[in-house]
Amino acid sequence: NTEISALFTIFGATGDLAHRKLYPSLFRLFKKGYIQKNFAVIGTARREWTDTYFREVVADSVKDIVENEEELTEFTSHFYYISHNVNDAAHYVELKKLSETLDEKYTINGNRIFYLAMAPQFFGVIGDMLKSNHLITDNGFNRLIIEKPFGHDLQSATELNEQLARSFSEDQIYRIDHYLGKEMIQNISAVRFSNMIFEALWNNKYIDNVQITLSETVGVEDRGDYYDHTGALRDMVQNHVLQIVALLVMEPPLSLDGNDVRNEKIKALRSLRLYENKQDVLDNFVRGQYVAGNEQVGYTDEPNVNPESNTETFVAGKIMVDNFRWAGVPFYIRTGKRMSQKDTYIHIQFKHVSMNLFPTEGVEEVAQPNILTIHISPLEGFSLRLNTKRVGQGTEMKNIRMHQILDEQTSANSPEAYERLLLDSLNGDPTNFTHWKEVEQSWRFIDQIRNAWDDEENYIFDYESGSMGPKESYDLLARDNFDWIEFN
Ligand code: BG6
Description:
- This protein has helices spanning about 15-30, 50-60, 70-75, 90-105, 125-130, 155-165, 185-195, 195-200, 225-230, 230-250, 260-270, 280-285, 410-415, 415-425, 435-455, 470-480, and strands spanning about 5-10, 40-45, 80-85, 110-115, 140-145, 175, 205-215, 285-290, 315-320, 330-335, 345-350, 370-375, 380-390, 395-405, 460-465.
- By secondary structure, it is α/β, with parallel strands linked by helices.
- The strands form two sheets. It has a nine-stranded mixed sheet, sandwiched between helices.
- Helix 10 (about 230-250) packs across helix 11 and helix 10 (about 230-250) packs across helix 15 (about 435-455).
- The protein is globular, with a radius of gyration of 24 Å.
- 6-O-phosphono-beta-D-glucopyranose binds near residues 216, 235 and 344.
């Protein structure tokens, strides 16, 4: 693999994300040769750490994937730490000095990746300071990677974007949605656009409904404070769920070029129906909160959660796509904490054949609509439900499912989302990062729902921990004569 030179400056280097995801991903890229000699990492945060201590922390974060000590020592020797107050200009002077020294030492040629793994209220000031203190180089690339949440609603997201735009242009900003780094999310376009049997049927003539489930078994863990101010709608739907919808809905892009793909996703997001009045929202979006059950405490008893909270830990909704291809096809989505299983999958349910020739009475199985299942995680792969004839005499049906599920080893060896995304950012490939216009359009959609819910504080339903959500989520589909497809 060809090496790409870069200086990474990680703001929030002492944090959990850096430890769990960034250092191991950088290590994997190092082992694969994408970064080798011409790279350095400056970790920065408020805490007073030394380079030595920082290197120990980095070494600890990769201990499960280290094969030999030499490789580890070589890798961590590229890491430097500088304690930093993001509001203090003097610190950026120091940061610049260190950047230049490392650039020379490792022959980096001006390439910079600034990674903001910290709270978004600091994004603006960091951007401004990087610019005013001339940390942005003119002899290499300069890329800014930022983590969610990108705003709290459309207004705050717009403000944030305007702040960043003072120092970085849209094509230098890489907004992470880690779902876009997942193998099977990237596979959606592959299977859609390279198979005639799907592409030809991928529309409202042949597809009856689509169901997207992102269920988690964990509760809010130690993130009560963040989560209680956020809720499942902002935490999961605004980003991951709507990104999945966009990939399913978009028109074929002109090419796989990042801007071609993202232009189609922007159009897709623009075609989502905005629920304009409160009743439409309440009819089409259900929110829930887990209560005690299956030996788990209820949400309001979790640490750092307001005991009176009516923040939702579950959302189910019906999304309509008002364009030529999709008019009339409901996209049902659901996501929540403390559900019965950790599972992410998409079911695409096709329409029934227009006339069933096969027996429907006095038989065990009847013809069923075809379903294409995209297993995102933990299973990764595809399944397709088909009808066949039961072996023997007669015309009785047998439903079968054809599976192509990655084996454990292939799954385990496939690059982790952050590894892929870091490599994409090194390569300057924005395809799997969200464009500002996608973020903008997603918030526009989410704000409608949020506003109606904020107005109707008590419109929230309990569900037992360890279940698949409140009864109202089932009612949502039952009204349209559908049911959540529970098999996976
Ligand atoms: C994050 C959310 O974006 O995604 C978390 O903030 C959630 O609340 C996580 O647990 C789920 O990601 P994954 O990859 O485990 O499905």
